[in-house]
Amino acid sequence: MFNPGSWFLALEAVLIFGLAGWAYSLVKRDVSIVDSMWSIMFLIAAVTYLITNDAGPRANLVMLLVTLWSLRLAVHITWRNWGEAEDYRYQQIRRNNSPNFALKSIYIVFGLQAVLAWVISMPLLAAISGQHPVGLLDLAGVILWSVGFVFESLGDLQLVRFRGDPDNRGKVLQSGLWGLTRHPNYFGDFCVWWGFFLLALSAGGWWSFVSPLLMSFLLLKVSGVAMLEKDIGKRRPEYAEYVSRTNAFFPGPQKKASNP
Fold first, then answer.
1. By the 8 A CB rule, do 158 and 224 touch?
2. 82: number of Cβ within 10 Å
3. Burial letters for 166-201: b for 16+ Cβ neighbours within 10 Å, e otherwise?
4. pLDDT band at 229, cuts 50/70/90?
5. 145 vs 54, 79, 192, 199, 201, CA distance in Å?
6. Minimal CA–CA distance to 225: which of 197, 193, 184?
7. Per-residue confidence band for 260, with pLDDT thresholds at 50, 70 and 90
8. Domain extents for the chain?
9. What is the pLDDT of residues 134-183, one digit of tens each?
10. What is the reported pTM?
11. pLDDT mean across residues, the chain
12. Which of 49, 77, 73 is nearest to 199 (CA)?
């Protein structure tokens, strides 16, 4: 059984981290740094759970998986955004919440994401502290996590290479994993968190099902697919044809192009 207080200690830890990020964003005048902080919030929560509970038999495995996922994503986003202006999505949030956005961003951006990360981290608490023996569900969880990690990391790498070619400016990547799903990185995140849930379930943490459901909702309906595709067709004319041929989220073979 886990220490109930450790979950609230994790909330304090991620909120302090979010507060530090907010202070830095005032200096940079760029709240999109929160994207680099997002995955680190989960690592902070996991470390808190590890040091405030009796570690279960799968604790080291979970810490390895969350560390790999967290650091890869944080490094990728930081490198991708380095030297760039504030992300257009946050510029819109800034306009919609002016004046006094600098103050409002402490809860609209940083506080909100810290709380979301805290809630979604529930499977990490269950898996790290659970004392049930390791079994087949753990294997299934690791396999699903691995599929997600490959989709997320390889999808990001393919997109970086595509955008790095000047000949592809304004074009849409439609090959590799991007030929199977329009959002391989979001699908990867989906698999990662359902994988963590299977590890938690094996440890007795059935109650943490809220986490992957919430993450799935965010990826599909809020900050993931829905937000990205809201106006991308206006910015990239090829995207309409890409949509007609390629699955939005779950991977599958591309459809044949329709005859003109």
1. no
2. 8
3. eeeeeebbbeebbbbbbbbbbbbbbbbbbbbbbbbb
4. low
5. 24, 24, 4, 10, 14
6. 184
7. very low
8. 1-131, 133-254
9. 999 999 999 999 999 999 999 999 999 999 989 888 788 989 999 999 99
10. 0.92
11. 91
12. 49
User: How far is 43 from 137, CA to CA, in rounded Å?
Assistant: 23
Take residue 245 and report the two structure tokens written for it: 């041929």
The C-alpha atoms of residue 200 and residue 190 are separated, in whole angstroms, by 16
Q: Is the peptide bond before 99 cis (omega within 30 degrees of 0)?
A: yes
- The kind and range of the H/E element at 193 are helix 184-202
> What pLDDT was estimated at residue 243?
84
- Quick one: tokens of 50? 């590890």
Question: In the numeric block, which tokens belong to residue 215?
Answer: 């993450």
